[in-house]
């Protein structure tokens, strides 16, 4: 796959304003992987094409959805990502389900489903390590674990990085 449509993050309860921040974090982290050319599809574009501002990875797609995305954006694949669980308070947790679908055949080329919970020591440690990599490494983290364990926005970047890191295993450079 060379070009992949990145659909807006799906969640049934969170407001669109919040989901736009998550969309941005996930799109940015996916682009850092440089596995494909990413074609971000906005909620407005999706609404204009399908009458829906978000599409779930597990619901029945509108008729000819993949064909329309392939024709309009020239993509080989479509990436669906759902935020299945979200707790913004300590311990922060985010559940992610994602699928990369071949736009021609409709087959699932990669799937992922995991809950990241900072109440789990290994997840908290990995998130702090991620924060160290992407902030000034000379600054010590506060004893409370740093802002990544307190900020859903920052934590979503870690979650996206980990999620799409597994995609890199399926589609190496």
Please characterize this protein's 3D structure.
- With 173 residues, the protein is an alpha/beta fold.
- It has a single domain, classed as Rossmann fold.
- The protein is 39% helix and 23% strand.
- A five-stranded mixed sheet has the order 2-1-3-4-5, with helices on both faces.
- The model has no long low-confidence stretch (mean pLDDT 89).
Provide a short characterization of the protein structure.
Helix content is 39%, strand content 23%.
Keywords:
Rossmann fold; 39% helix; 173 residues; alpha/beta
Strand order of the largest sheet: 2-1-3-4-5
> Helix-strand pattern, N to C?
EHEHHEEEHH
Biggest β-sheet description: 5 strands, mixed
- The CATH C-level class name: Alpha Beta
Radius of gyration: 16 Å
């Amino acid at each position: 796959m060379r070009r992949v449509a990145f659909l807006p993050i799906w969640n049934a309860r969170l407001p669109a304003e919040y989901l736009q921040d998550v969309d941005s974090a996930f799109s940015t982290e996916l682009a850092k992987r440089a596995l494909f050319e990413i074609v971000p599809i906005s909620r407005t574009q999706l609404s204009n094409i399908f009458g829906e501002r978000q599409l779930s990875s597990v619901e029945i797609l509108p008729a000819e959805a993949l064909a329309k995305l392939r024709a309009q954006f020239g993509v080989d694949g479509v990436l669906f990502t759902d935020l299945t669980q979200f707790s913004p308070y300590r311990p922060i947790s985010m559940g992610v389900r994602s699928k990369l679908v071949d736009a021609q055949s409709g087959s699932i080329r990669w799937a992922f489903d995991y809950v990241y919970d900072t109440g789990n020591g290994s997840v908290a440690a990995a998130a702090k390590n991620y924060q160290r990599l992407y902030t000034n490494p000379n600054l010590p983290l506060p004893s409370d674990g740093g802002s990544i364990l307190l900020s859903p926005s920052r934590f979503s970047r870690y979650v996206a990085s980990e999620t799409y890191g597994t995609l890199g295993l399926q589609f190496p450079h």
